[in-house]
Design brief:
By secondary structure, this protein is of the alpha+beta class. The protein has 13 helices and twelve strands. The protein has two domains: 182 residues, no CATH class; 111 residues, no CATH class. α9 crosses α11. The chain is globular. It binds iron/sulfur cluster (SF4) (2 copies).
C-alpha cells in the first residue's frame, strides 16, 4: 500500500500506545536466549534478537487451550470456549511469518478451526526483515523464507536510525496512523532500503546442497532409506524438535472433569509425533512404534507430505529443531545425506 519511515525513537511510544488497547507480544530476553511474550513495558522489546526458543506460533495456537466446557448435572449442556484477544504480534522474523501462513492454511482448509481462526482474526502481524542469520543453524535462504512479500500487516526493515515500514493492509495503516508517528518515505529512504536489502543476501548461506523444490520428489524415493534407522537409533523421543517448530501443529485433546464426573472442560495441548505414545490407538496398537519410523515421518512431513497437502514445504529453515535436539540430529544434514545418496 505505502512505504513509511518510523524513527527508532518512535518505536517505544508506538508500543506504549498500542499497549493501551491491545495485547502486544514481542521478543524479550529470557536469560541468554529470547522468547515471545506479552509486553508490560515497551523497553522489554528486543528487536535485536536472533531467534526465540518457541516460535510465535504459540500466540495463535497456545500450548494449552480450553475448547469447551460441559455439564452433565441437571440439564446437560456444552458451551464452546473461544479465547481470543486483540493482539499485535510484533517483530516476527520472515521464516516465522511464512510458518504463520502455513498454519493459516492448516487451520482453515478442510477442517476450519474456530479457535485458531478467531485468534488469527484478532491478530495484527508486524514482521521484521532479517539482515543477519540468527546463527550457523539458520537455513532460511535454502528454504526461500529469507524475505517475505506478503502475509504481514506492517513489515519493518532496519535502516540504521529508522525503520522502513511497508504498510500492507488497512489494519496496519490504521495502527500506524492511530498510535504511531511515521512519515512517508522519500527517495533517499527508498534508495537506502534497496541498499540494505541488497547487502543482506551474501551474509546468508545456502545450507542445502540442492534446490529445496526437489525435496518432495527426492523424499518420495526415500521411504526405505537407511538414514531413518540411523536417526532412530540416536533419537531419544523427547519431542523437543517438534515443540520448537513453527510449522508443527499436531495436538491432543483431553477431557478434564471434576471428581463427580458431572462437569468438566475439553482442552487441547501440543503433541509431538516423536513421542512414543503419539501413534498409540485403541487396543494398545502403535502404528508408528519404532523411532526410526517416527524420524522418517518428521522428515517426510517437512519435505513432502505438507507440500502435497498445502503446496508449500513444511520447513521454513528456522533451525530451531537443530538447536533443540539433544541427540544432535540435524535436518539439513539429513536432507543433504538423502540427496547425496540418490
Ligand atoms: S523443521 Fe526445524 S528448521 Fe524446519 S521449520 Fe521446523 S524447527 Fe525450523
Ligand atoms: S529433539 Fe532430537 S532426540 Fe528429541 S525427539 Fe527430536 S530428533 Fe529425537
Amino acid at each position: 500500500m505505502s512505504l513509511m519511515v518510523l524513527n527508532k525513537g518512535a518505536v517505544g511510544p508506538l508500543i506504549e500506545a498500542l499497549m493501551a488497547d491491545y495485547r502486544v507480544v514481542g521478543p524479550q530476553a529470557k536469560g541468554p536466549q529470547f522468547a515471545f511474550g506479552t509486553l508490560t513495558d515497551p523497553a522489554q522489546m528486543r528487536l535485536d534478537y536472533n531467534t526465540t526458543i518457541l516460535p510465535p506460533k504459540k500466540v495463535l495456537q497456545p500450548q494449552q487451550e480450553r475448547l469447551a466446557s460441559y455439564s452433565l448435572g441437571g440439564k446437560p449442556s456444552v458451551e464452546q470456549i473461544i479465547e481470543a484477544t486483540p493482539t499485535v504480534l510484533f517483530g516476527i522474523h520472515t521464516c516465522d511469518l511464512h510458518a504463520v501462513q502455513l498454519l493459516d492454511k492448516a487451520f482453515s482448509e478442510e477442517y476450519p478451526d474456530a479457535h485458531y481462526l478467531a485468534r488469527r482474526d484478532q491478530t495484527i502481524l508486524v514482521s521484521l526483515e532479517c539482515l543477519e542469520p540468527c546463527d550457523e543453524h539458520s537455513f532460511c535462504k535454502s528454504m526461500g523464507t529469507l524475505t517475505a512479500g506478503e502475509g504481514y500487516d506492517l513489515h519493518l526493515t532496519d535502516l540504521g536510525l529508522a525503520y522502513a515500514v511497508d504498510v500492507a493492509t488497512e489494519a496496519g495503516a490504521q495502527i500506524l496512523s492511530d498510535y504511531g508517528s511515521a512519515s512517508e518515505a522519500g527517495d533517499g529512504d527508498v534508495r537506502r532500503l534497496n541498499d540494505v536489502l541488497g547487502a543482506k543476501w551474501p551474509r546468508f548461506t545456502y545450507r542445502l546442497e540442492f534446490d529445496a523444490a526437489e525435496l518432495p520428489a527426492l523424499l518420495s524415493t526415500a521411504y526405505d532409506h537407511p538414514l531413518w534407522q540411523e536417526l532412530g537409533d540416536r533419537c531419544l523421543a523427547c519431542g523437543s524438535c517438534t515443540n520448537v517448530c513453527p510449522t508443527c501443529y499436531c495436538f491432543n485433546v483431553y477431557d478434564e472433569t471434576n471428581m463427580a464426573l458431572t462437569e468438566g472442560e475439553r482442552v487441547r495441548r501440543w503433541d509431538s509425533c516423536q513421542l512414543d505414545e503419539f501413534a498409540r490407538v485403541a487396543g494398545g496398537e502403535n502404528f508408528r512404534e519404532a523411532r526410526a519410523a517416527r524420524q522418517r515421518h518428521r522428515f517426510m512431513r517437512k519435505g513432502r507430505y505438507i507440500f502435497e497437502k498445502f503446496g508449500e514445504l513444511g520447513c521454513v529453515g528456522c533451525g530451531r529443531c537443530i538447536r533443540a535436539c539433544v541427540a544432535d540430529i540435524n535436518i539439513v544434514d539429513g536432507f543433504n545425506a538423502i540427496q547425496r545418496s540418490a
